[in-house]
Design a protein that fits this description.
Elements (H helix, E strand, L loop, with lengths): L3 E7 L2 H16 L5 E6 L5 H8 L4 E4 L8 H6 L22 E5 L3 E3 L13 E5 L2 E12 L3 H13 L7 H8 L20 H6 L1 H7 L10 E3 L15
Parallel strand pairs: 1-2, 1-4, 2-3
Antiparallel strand pairs: 4-7, 5-8, 6-7
């Protein structure tokens, strides 16, 4: 469908490699939706050309950085401040509905059925399940929502210094209002969850007849900072 898209973000060439894997995996599993990637000026021209070979749209956006060193230090994730750049995805009003996916995700099955969900649909965060994880979410582009999010970012900031805290503040009714907007936990499994809840993982993680989650986190967010990648 030309008016719906999978959207991701890359703020440097390292993340762009992940975005390429994500885009290729969506195509491999025969998505019928368009693919769009937001890139910041820090992405090189040569890498942007490579992205154009996979994505239908490569859109340059300005960096939005929370500058919230206190909360980012608390999480030991100083690089997450620039994830507020993700808010630009609401400006893509050429689309009626989108699914945002972080660049460290890999699609293991067709997930076009996510477009049947409403804004804001997302999976619970394993660290605090009353919050949703902003690595994968369904949303509706809107100039009004975009401007409201920028206002909240400017006036209130984010309780974790990144996009996830801000989005959970803005969509604060997610936990209690409509269970249909809760994506299955399988969309945000962590290695600890699989270890702790292995029986449930085996029971609920089947995808296309195989024991695989539909989305796998590649876990390379600290690639430039650490040899021990993690995912939050």
């Amino acid at each position: 469908m030309a008016d719906q898209a999978f959207v991701t973000l890359t703020t440097n060439d390292a993340y762009a490699k992940g975005a390429l894997v994500l885009g290729s995996s969506l195509k491999q599993h025969r998505t019928t939706r368009r693919l769009a990637v937001l890139t910041t000026p820090q992405v090189s021209d040569s890498m942007r050309k490579v992205l154009e070979a996979v994505f239908d749209e490569v859109i340059i956006v300005d960096v939005l950085d929370s500058g919230d060193s206190a909360h980012l230090t608390l999480m030991k994730r100083p690089e997450l401040g620039v994830t507020l750049t993700k808010l630009h995805c609401w400006s893509l009003t050429q689309y009626s509905k989108c699914v945002f996916m972080d660049a460290d995700t890999l699609v293991l099955a067709n997930i076009d059925d996510l477009f049947e969900r409403e804004e804001l649909s997302a999976a619970p965060d394993p660290g605090w399940p009353d919050c949703f994880n902003s690595g994968v979410f369904v949303y509706q582009p809107s100039v009004e929502t975009y401007n409201q999010l920028l206002h909240v970012a400017s006036e209130q900031g984010s309780f974790d210094g990144g996009d996830q805290g801000l989005l959970n503040t803005f969509f604060s009714s997610w936990a209690t209002t409509d269970i249909r907007k809760h994506l299955p936990f399988i969309y945000n499994l962590s290695s600890i969850s699989i270890y702790s809840y292995l029986p449930a993982f085996k029971a609920f993680s089947t995808c296309g007849g195989t024991s695989l989650p539909p989305v796998f986190y590649l876990c390379f967010k600290n690639l430039a900072l650490s040899k021990t990648p993690t995912h939050t």
